[in-house]
Design a protein that fits this description.
The chain is of the alpha+beta class. It folds into 2 domains: about 270 residues, no CATH class; about 220 residues, Serum Albumin, Chain A, Domain 1 (Orthogonal Bundle), CATH 1.10.246. Helices cover about 35% and strands about 15% of the residues. It is built from 15 helices and 18 strands. The chain has a 7-stranded antiparallel sheet with strand order 6-3-2-10-9-1-18, covered by helices on one side. The longest helix is centred in the middle third of the chain and has 22 residues. The protein is globular. The chain starts with 5 loop residues before the first strand and ends in a 10-residue tail after the last strand.
């Protein structure tokens, strides 16, 4: 019997999509493709993500329960409240902002172990070769990278190592080419020495020394002590299927709650306005629970799975009013991130997210490695009464949450987005449009979106609505009591979403016109997959 060998990959930068797809075409696994693309997008979108950041994986084999990988960095052993005794809050930029370990590469290591159990591995040099070449040859500055460069220039341009992201000491302009030779050399060294070198070898030593020189509390022992964790995803079953997301410290619970609540109330609506309104009101209920409970897993007093029980969801659904918006605001968070999805020729799927948190993270660039360090630790609090109180070895709250769903009709969907506070909202928008309202996948992603709360450094808590969406639902939302602000259509503020779907051997994929991305669907041509067996 001939086996279908369709493959699919989507990423918010076309070069990363091409890298991932090339590995799939060689017969590589979805995990191998994702590691190759993760290295590539760390080069191509250096303001959004990198080896100095965090990562979260959802990995699905057909017929098996999905597996999660938590590659969130923990606070360094010297990152104590006393270290910040002279600060009112943890600084958002600079050495003191670089207080959590980078988990992304450890996540790659753990994921590749799973891939190794599936089939013979491709060499690490094969997976990283294109990213190395991209860094050596240079990357073309996108509008997204240029915008981030101008936005952060005053805060970051004078920092050690940051000159690699400037041209003649000026912000980057779209279309210019930037070479990253230090990062290329680091990737080449890791390809030859092994990824473990990031935590236990020469790379770790270089990073620890550079971070110490920048005033970071991270030390060498933090590298050797760190390891990403295999975790059991949270899940909820609705009328449409079973949805999966990551447990704490991510906001995966919020993403699941929004869609589980919408499943209970969506039939109350009869218009596009009602759909958007109900999703927003479900978001508010989900965020109330998220803000109350999500922190480092060791601090959580309530089993988050209890929030997903039918009785708990029914109680929350009572607070969703079709006619009236619930008063807002609530605290919010912002961030810069990438999401990517893959499906290999065996139907194995990956939903992956990788992040530095803010644009260029802490702004600390390791001069000897070219690696940008994250500032995720700014999500900790110095208030001893807070459930985000800083403590060495703990993880801060994470907006990151890759999503996956197995529908009753046989479709399996890997989906997600960047966008901090907007991630659960964008996930809900694209999923609801495609699954509940039968919109085509690409249209479900491209249509006008909304964002409740503040993100990307914004201080307002209102409801931001893209102009094209406002044209046909704005008046109705205002009538229901929403505090609206109109932003331009196809706005990067709304995140970079994407999805890959596998159903009955067929694969489809889509990416966001708000990004520089590309979705590729094709066939494995390795000469083994897809032949008569």
């Amino acid at each position: 019997m001939k086996k279908n060998n369709m493959i699919g990959f989507t990423a918010p930068h076309y070069a990363a999509s091409q890298v991932g797809n090339a590995i799939l075409e060689k017969g590589g696994t979805a995990i191998e493709a994702m590691v190759a693309a993760a290295a590539s997008i760390a080069v191509e979108y250096p303001h959004m993500n990198g080896l100095g950041g965090d990562g979260f994986w959802l990995i699905s084999e057909p017929g098996k329960a999905p597996v999660g990988i938590d590659a969130a960095g923990v606070a360094g052993k010297n990152a104590t409240p006393d270290f910040y005794a002279n600060d009112d809050a943890i600084p958002s930029r600079g050495g003191k902002a670089a207080l959590t370990m980078a988990g992304a590469v450890s996540g790659w290591i753990e994921a590749l172990k799973i891939s190794d159990s599936w089939q013979k591995s491709l060499p690490l040099t094969t997976l990283l070769d294109t990213a190395i070449n991209q860094a050596n040859w240079g990357i073309e500055v996108t509008q997204s990278l240029s915008d981030a460069s101008f936005k952060t220039f005053d805060d970051l341009h004078s920092g050690p190592g940051f000159e690699q992201f400037l041209i003649k000491e000026k912000p980057l302009k779209k279309g210019k080419v930037v070479k990253l030779p230090a990062l290329a050399a680091t990737l080449k060294h890791l390809a030859n020495a092994g990824l473990e070198d990031f935590y236990l070898g020469e790379t770790a030593d270089k990073l620890a020394a550079d971070l110490a020189a920048a005033g970071s509390p991270i030390c060498g022992q933090d590298f050797s002590d760190y390891q990403a964790k295999i975790v059991t995803p949270l899940s909820v079953t609705t009328s449409k299927g079973t949805l999966y997301n990551l447990p704490a410290p991510t906001q995966g619970i919020a993403s699941l709650l929004i869609l589980a609540l919408y499943d209970k109330v969506w039939q109350q609506g009869s218009s596009d306005t009602d759909m958007v309104h109900l999703l927003i009101e479900c978001t508010k209920q989900a965020f109330l629970k998220r803000n109350r409970f999500v922190t480092d897993p060791s601090r959580i007093q309530t089993d988050l799975r209890q929030l997903l029980t039918d009785s708990s969801l029914a109680e929350m659904a009572k607070a969703v009013d079709l006619q009236q918006a619930m008063p807002w605001p609530q605290p919010a968070a912002h961030g810069d991130t990438i999401w990517m999805g893959a499906c290999d020729a065996e139907g194995r799927m990956v939903s992956y997210i990788q992040s530095l948190y803010w644009e260029f993270g802490s702004g600390i660039v390791s001069p000897s490695t070219g690696i940008v360090w994250n500032n995720r630790g700014t999500s900790f609090s110095l208030d001893a009464s807070s459930n985000q109180y800083l403590q060495p070895g703990l993880t801060p709250f994470h907006t990151l949450n890759p999503a996956f769903a197995e529908l009753h009709d046989g479709r399996r969907i890997s989906y997600g987005t960047m966008g901090g506070e907007g991630q659960p909202q964008t996930q809900a928008a694209l999923f609801a449009r495609h699954v509940y309202h039968q919109q085509p996948l690409d249209k479900s992603i491209a249509l006008g979106r909304w964002l409740l709360g503040r993100t990307w450094g914004d201080v307002s808590h209102n409801l931001k609505v893209e102009r094209d969406l406002h044209d046909y639902v704005g008046a109705g939302l205002a009538q229901k009591g929403h505090d609206l602000v109109v932003v331009e259509a196809c706005n990067e503020l709304m995140g970079h979403a994407g999805a890959v779907i596998s159903a009955n051997g067929e694969v489809s994929a889509a990416t966001d016109p708000r990004s520089d991305g590309k979705a590729i669907v094709g066939y494995s041509t390795d000469g083994i997959t897809g032949v008569e067996k």
